[in-house]
Specification:
mainly beta, 16 strands, 14-stranded antiparallel β-barrel, 281 residues
């Protein structure tokens, strides 16, 4: 990766738009440096007074600017980190802070195995919306990925929110009445259910270097966003990528709820490919 440029757009639910622009450049013997910017537009909202009379519109946006660095120590170990400035503007309310991410990756090339540990959102809210500061959503993730030797298929398992063991909650609507005793039985999720809530599964099928298809499943999202009255696709995701000339185009769809899903579009290119082609002329 030398001179790689990435831009993406997420068409989220409720007319929320998320845009990214990223650039990474690798210096031989030094490491890889990264710059990125993200913009989140939540759209327009009605401004009303205390009795609900409309008095115009207001907007809400989030901005994030990131600088990062990665270094491959040897054929097995690589490390990385980034620093991010975050700014939120919600009507007349404004907040900003700093966060950092750290990662360590271990890979075994002969086994096509990759293991990564990531600590996300370590930081501080310098200016709160009001008098009370809010903690940043720190998260610890552990991921495993492996590609089959004689099959163009890669699987991955990511364990999310390892900093918090119990992701279950007591749902007062999730109760049943014993038809023999008439007693109310609590259906609090089991320990195994809690373990699955930490796991996100993924598959990537790459029959050629220019085309791939991905599938994903998030057990926790399905548990929390599924409906008891009907079957839904909550928790599932799918996507595909295709390379045309020097550009890779990706599309994915994340199925959250019957009320809506998120569509992801991205475009990736390596400026080094253009320089190499120019030098060969």
């Amino acid at each position: 990766m030398s001179g790689q440029f990435t831009t993406s757009l997420i068409d989220h639910m409720s007319d929320i738009l998320i845009g990214d622009v990223n650039y990474a450049y690798h210096f031989e013997g030094i490491g890889t440096f990264y710059l990125g910017a993200r913009y989140v537009d939540y759209g327009d909202f009605d401004r009303t007074n205390l009795i609900g009379v409309k008095q115009g519109l207001f907007t809400a946006q989030d901005y994030a600017f990131t600088a990062g660095y990665g270094y491959q120590l040897d054929s097995n170990w690589s490390f990385g980190g980034n620093l991010r400035f975050i700014n939120s503007i919600y009507d007349t309310y404004n907040s900003y802070g700093m966060s950092a991410d750290l990662s360590a990756t271990y890979q075994i090339p002969s086994k096509r195995l990759v293991i990564a540990l990531v600590a996300k959102n370590m930081g501080y809210q310098f200016k709160p919306y009001s008098d009370e500061r809010e903690p940043l959503p720190f998260e610890l993730q552990l991921g495993f990925s492996n590609r089959f030797e004689h099959l163009p298929l890669r699987w991955q398992i990511t364990f999310e929110q390892l900093e918090k063991w119990d992701l279950r909650y007591d749902d007062p609507t999730n109760v049943t009445v014993n038809q023999f005793t008439g007693e109310v039985e609590d259906n609090y999720p089991s320990v195994w259910n809690n373990v699955l809530r930490h796991m996100v599964l993924g598959l990537e099928f790459s029959p050629t270097r220019s085309f791939n298809v991905q599938f994903g499943y998030n057990f926790r999202k399905r548990q929390e966003l599924n409906l008891d009255t009907r079957r839904t696709s909550a928790g599932f995701s799918f996507g595909l990528g295709i390379k045309i000339s020097k550009f890779r185009i990706n599309y994915s769809r994340n199925l959250y709820h019957v009320a809506g899903s998120a569509n992801h579009f991205s475009l990736i290119t390596d400026f080094g490919d253009f320089r190499r082609k120019k030098n060969t002329r």
